[in-house]
Amino acid sequence: MRILVTNDDGIRAPGIRALVEQLAPKHDITVVAPAEEQSAKSHSITIHTPLMVRKQVFMSGVTGYAVTGTPSDCVRLGVLQLMEKPDMVLSGINAGSNIGLDVLYSGTVSAALEGALLGYPSAAVSSFTKDWGAFDFERAAKESEILVKLIEEKKVDASIVLNLNVPSVQDDAYKGVKVAPLDLDPATRENYEKRISPAGEAYYWMTFQARPNGPDSFQQGDLYLCQDGYSTLTPLHFDLTQHRDLPALEAWVEARENEA
């Protein structure tokens, strides 16, 4: 398959290298990735400044393009200008999970969503760890094969983005892959810590506190299962319409107009 590989951690990140090393022997890979880290950029695109592109040898036999833009910029520029039309877009491996509501902020997932918006089968893969920095990119790279296989065998519609999170655990603690919905209870409790600069000005630094897995946890969701040693596979879609509420809203609007 011809695969466009991107990420949000930047073209020099170890996760994207592990992914390409895993897939390059079997597939035609082109890397189009941000020149610098673009984490939490969500689905932003660059419209007020030009995008600079530096072509390079990413690794033996693999062409890379470093783009001074966001992950979504990379996908758009890649499929529209820099390479032949790909068979799929694959984003990752992200250093850190993209689970639950995190997908709304994730540059990794948004790059895959951009691929789907443009009509290409797309997927994202991320590495989850409870010990920040101890990422098992090797396992995540191997498990990414399931994403390629699902798309090769046309098991999902091109408008669906496959989101895979792989835990970094010991081999004997790894339990395999489970399909799971997003856990909509935020994985972290966030706030802002007020500090004072040397110049006496107030500034704010975001703080995070992990959500404990208590009895009220959504135990079939991706967060719980990934913490329990499973890789989680979640189908995502860019249609944000809440279809179930359309009839009620239509009835309300019709009644209002009849009263006028």
Description:
The protein is of the alpha/beta class and 260 residues long. The protein has a single domain (2-184, 216-259), classed as Survival protein SurE-like phosphatase/nucleotidase (Stationary-phase Survival Protein Sure Homolog, Chain: A), CATH 3.40.1210.10. It contains seven helices and eleven strands. A nine-stranded mixed sheet has the order 3-4-2-1-5-6-7-11-8, with helices on both faces. A hairpin with a 2-residue loop joins strand 3 and strand 4 (62-67). Helix 1 crosses helix 4 (137-143) and helix 2 packs parallel to helix 3 (107-117). The longest helix is centred in the last third of the chain and has 14 residues, at 246-259. It starts with a strand and ends with a helix. The model has no long low-confidence stretch (mean pLDDT 92).
List keywords for this structure.
alpha/beta; 5'-nucleotidase activity; 9-stranded mixed beta sheet; about 260 residues
CATH-defined superfamily: Survival protein SurE-like phosphatase/nucleotidase
Helix content: 25-40%
* Structural Rg: 20 Å
Mean pLDDT: 92
Number of separate structural domains: 1
The coarse silhouette is: globular
Compute the number of helices.
7
* Main pleated-sheet profile: 9 strands, mixed
| Spatial order of strands in the largest sheet | 3-4-2-1-5-6-7-11-8
For this structure, the CATH topology is Stationary-phase Survival Protein Sure Homolog, Chain: A
Low-confidence stretches: none
Family: Belongs to the SurE nucleotidase family.
Domain Survival protein SurE-like phosphatase/nucleotidase: 3-182
Protein name: 5'-nucleotidase SurE
GO molecular function, one term: 3'-nucleotidase activity
